[in-house]
Amino acid sequence: MLKRLFGGQDNEPENNQPPPADEPREEQPPQDNTPREGDFPPGVELLYTLRGHTSRLRRIAWSPDGQTLASSSADNTIRLWDAATGQHFRTLKGHVNEVISVAWLPDGQTLASASWDQTVRLWEAATGQTIHTLQGYSDTVYSVAWSPSGKMLASGSADIWLWDAITGQHFRTLEGHSDSVYSVAWSPDGQTLASAANDSTIRLWDASTGHHLRTLEGHTNGVYTVTWSPDGRILASASPDNTIRLWEAATGQHLRTLEGHTDEVTWAGFSPDGRLFVSKSSDSVRLWRGDTWDAIATLVEPAGGSGAFFPGGDFNPTQSHILATVGTENSDIGDDVINVWKLDYDILLGQAPTESVGYTNSRVVLVGDTGVGKSGLALVLMDQPWEPTDSTHARKIYTLQDKTETLPNGRREQRETLLWDLAGQPGYRIIHQLQLTEVAVALLCFDARSDTDPFAGVKYWNRALAQAQKARQSDPLPMRKYLVSARIDRGGLAVSAERIQQLMNDLGFDGYFETSAREGWGIGDLKQAVCSGIDWDTLPRVSSTGLFVRIKDFLTAKKESGLPIITENALYSAYLDSEYAVPEDRDVRAEFATVIGRVESRGLIRRLSFGNLVLLQPELLDAYASSMVFAAREEPDGLGFISEELARTGRFNMSSDERLPESDRELEKLLLIATVEDLLRHEIALRDADNLIFPSQFLREREDYPNPEGKAATYTFEGAVQNIYTRLAVRLARSGMFTQPAMWRNAATYHTPRGTCGVMLREFDEGRGEFTLFYESTVGSDTRQFFEGFVNTHLQRYALPQSIAVQYILACPGCGLDITQAAQLLRQRGENTYQCGVCKTVVILPADGERAAPAPIADMNETANQLRDLDAAAYTLQGKIATNDFDVFLCHNSGDKPLIRKLGAHLKKHGILPWLDEEQLRPGLPWQRALEHQIANIKTVAVFVGENGIGPWQHNELDAFLREFVRRGCPVIPVILPKCPNPPDLPIFLQGMTWVDFRVRTPNPMQRLIWGITGDRDRLRMRS
Q: pLDDT at position 450, please?
């Protein structure tokens, strides 16, 4: 978000010491953002505005009797307000850092609070005294929630902790999220706990046992809030991806997406009677009907954009027409007041929605091996005349159907069906496995004329589709599968009807079609089956605005025009000049940017991570990626790599009809950078010694394949075997524990201080594989458990879970004889020792399940994620350099130059391009002119204050530049260098900004600086 700085302490030292509660502030003219009567839609009245906190507000909560409102703030306090008068009557002090969340015990006598200081406090509301301080966390506590019975308290941090409300004892930890838990919420019956986290998921837990029930996936960014409908049937989640998602609580099915916000949605909630639903973002507060989910009112209530600390809201539980929301009065502070609204339900629910539009879309995929006739079939399904076609390269996307349906309730809904024709060449498989999500209908084509293997590819694609559905295990969409013979005009069938029927029964096909694209045979029946096979009632709906839909339609048309790439600014200008815009659309840049993100989430277009570029044909990345995979496979020594230089410059074999024309070579360089970035981020390739290594493309064989010495366990599984193996090989190399990989065809070994660990792959047929784990004899049991645990967790995540089976191999330590079967028989008879018949060594047999002991692999996975991101960031940086896409202007005193150089180098390591004078200023030219030229392209300013003076703002020209950044709403970050005198003397316009202080270690200043520059809180967990 453009205006976000940090969401940390405002004008406070970052040493966890609270400032005096009433410390005087230097007066400056605030920008008045107070809502005024004329700004309100019909049916909405502002009762009063609560003022008093001296820093940003976070979450707020009404007491159960509706008489008191509690507010949490970055000023380290909680305030209690009288609902009848709007007067503040008590301040709760005790936290030594900002308070993020508050929750009332159901009896209304006790309040719980969560804080950045890594504690939860319980307060006696009547006196404001602390009852308990709940400690033990090693990270920020973001959220608290009482169970409906009042017997348990849940708190969210790195994990979820459950506390006994009477004793204050922590009695259970719920583990599973891979990032900070921002919200916890109990179901109305108290039987289920929902949690939302920065890992983009919502998890549901059995309250009595702590068992994980299901995971809800679909948001494309973290999830800030999760809340239950009053009847417990629906869960709502709010996210910085600018959307709200609604889920069926009992099944986890995604029901609907609510669009309309143009900034991250920080809070959402139901009215006590469920008739209204409210969502809050930094752009507005939106009111929705609780039955049809139409947007019925928008409150233009600016927020300061405190980002990941959730300026919130709450309905009064006893007066459902009373709503409180956090707003902004002084934009220099942001989120500094609470607005209390009165809602007239009769007016709000009685008016016809004017801007809501409903739509849904479905995806049909056409898959199969190369040369089976998919491309010609796709053309005639689109009602185009048949013509000879070459094999599909990359993917092609067509709009198969776009119509408007009248629903039983009389409302109209736009329904769009997209046909994805995916290339069949083996080199594309590892790329296209990533494109099989959310499929409604799959057409699996085969060559019925083949005398060798007519069903080649069918089993692979069937398992790949099943794997993609598994990835959505919380709410897998119903998918119909049709088996298609695409070229029956060329000699009839060479396979019997019995074999076809057997295949259909074995793989669960819903129908079989014999077609000829050239002759038109069977095409009508197939298209009818596709269209009627889409179960629209089960697909998630979208409640959007007419403007959003017009922009979406414009982007779709622009994509279909064939234009490959364009800057977002140019694309926006083209929209304003198009037939899709109306005169009142003259200032809709925020809406336009939001819809780009929504269309991107469907895979139709793609924002590049640099240059403000939008790739309208993302299938180009598939073509370049697959060509790089082919190039690695052709490496003469079978070592499966391509040099980074060849990859960056495009000097590898690639069909001329796949790549951009010669005249677009500069554009191609940008696509090549984006392609390598994708390969690294999806863990298809690994950087090593200026090469890109593709584990799936090694051709040299290990001499001991498939029976290596030191075998210890085998895992059989089903899924996209090569994708699963490739990602495992890459992640093991990045895990931080297993290093110096050596790779062969379907095998890899890794070095540890105690010896070598290895994994070997056997692929039995399409979609079935086996991993064999093996070790040198010097490798200890702890290291083996780490290795096995990492492999097991990887398979649980990426393979079909019901297909995974493990068998541990036991060998005699004296002579190496495999005694697995003998050990099993002895254990069944109750014996726990075995004497080797060869060397007479007595072996103590492990107990059942002993080898399956959990290994602490979370840190290894986190390390793998961080190193993956650093590899990809190197290419993000290359793209930014090529497009002059600067992230931050480093404003500093020249005496601090050596330290600023080091900080700049560290930022580059994380894909952040700084504007530093000695790198960007051509000798002999005035710096003012160069900075004027670049200022529109720089997103953030970091103002460094060190020992060499009070700061660079003493220069009038530089002061003017800084004020221009403030005027544009860009983050301006004061950064205190290690030897800066205390306290630093900041100019007035910087005093309201959140500092980054390099004089302290906690919180990590470099991480906070990167967060401030990028607005991406995920990077707080990066490697330092």
A: 65
User: Looking at residue 847, what is its pLDDT?
Assistant: 57
CA 743 to chain centre: 31
Alpha carbon distance, N-terminus to C-terminus of the chain: 24
Half-sphere exposure of 488 (CA within 13 A, CB side): 14
**What residues of the chain score a pLDDT lower than 70?**
1-39, 302-309, 330-334, 353-355, 389-394, 424-428, 433-434, 450-452, 470-476, 491-494, 766, 801, 813-816, 843-856, 924-931, 949-960, 983-993, 1017-1024
Which residues, including other chains, have CB under 8 Å from residue 707's CB and lie 6 or more apart?
A: none
CA–CA separation, 674 and 621 (whole Å): 8
Pairing verdict, β 170-174 and 747-752: unpaired
Cα dihedral angle (486, 487, 493, 495), rounded to 10 degrees? -40
Tens digits of residue pLDDT in 743-801:
999 999 999 998 999 999 998 876 789 999 999 989 888 888 889 989 988 998 888 76
CA distance linking residue 398 with residue 75, whole number of Å? 54
Pairing of strands 212-217, 201-206: antiparallel
Q: Within 10 A of 906 (CB to CB), how many other CB atoms are there? A: 15
Q: Residue 82 burial by CB count (10 A; 0-12/13-18/19+): exposed, middle or buried?
A: middle
Question: Which of 223, 181, 216 is closest to 200 using CA atoms?
Answer: 223
Q: What is the DSSP string of 45-68?
A: EEEEEE---SS-EEEEEE-TTSSE
Res 471: pLDDT: 58
CA-to-CA distance for 872 and 730, rounded, in angstroms? 13
Supply the Cα-derived Rg of the chain in whole angstroms.
30
Measured CA to CA, the distance from residue 595 to residue 572 in angstroms comes to 11
For 821, the enclosing helix (H) or strand (E) is helix 820-828
Return d(Cα 269, Cα 317) in angstroms, integer: 12
Give phi and psi for 295, each to the nearest 5: -75, 130
- Cβ contact 419:364 at 8 Å: yes
Spatial strand order in the sheet of 160-164: 143-146, 152-156, 160-164, 170-174
Number of H helices, E strands in the chain: 21, 54
Q: Which two tokens stand for residue 869?
A: 């991101």
Spatial CA neighbour of 380 closest among 276, 520, 251: 520
What backbone phi and psi angles, to 5 degrees, belong to 860? Answer: -65, -45
Q: Report how far residue 268's alpha carbon sits from residue 818's, in angstroms, rounded to the nearest whole number.
A: 59
Question: Which has the closest alpha carbon to 718: 807, 806, 799, 805?
Answer: 799
According to DSSP, residue 211 is labeled: -
pLDDT of residue 489: 78
Compute the distance between CA of residue 274 and CA of residue 1004 in angstroms, rounded to an integer: 43
Which H or E run includes 280?
strand 276-281
Contact 56, 72 (CB under 8 A): no
pLDDT at residue 141 in the model: 95
Two structure tokens written together for 589? 């840049």
Instruction: Return d(Cα 627, Cα 633) in angstroms, integer.
Output: 10
565: its two tokens: 């790439």
The tokens describing 380, both together, are: 């005639």
Contacts of 981 by beta carbon, 8 Å cutoff, 6+ apart: 947
Q: How far apart are CA 166 and CA 152, in angstroms?
A: 8
Q: Is 512 exposed, middle or buried (0-12, 13-18, 19+ CB in 10 A)?
A: middle
- Determine contact, residues 696/722, Cβ cutoff 8 Å: yes
Report the pLDDT value the prediction gives residue 12, as an integer from 0 to 100. Answer: 31
Helix (H) or strand (E) holding 872: helix 858-883
Write down the pLDDT at residue 911.
94
List Cβ neighbours of 662 (8 Å cut-off, separation of 6 or more): none
Q: How far apart are CA 142 and CA 310, in angstroms?
A: 10
For the purposes of burial, counting CB atoms within 10 Å of the CB of 401, is it exposed (0-12), middle (13-18) or buried (19 or more)? middle
Length, in residues, of the chain: 1024
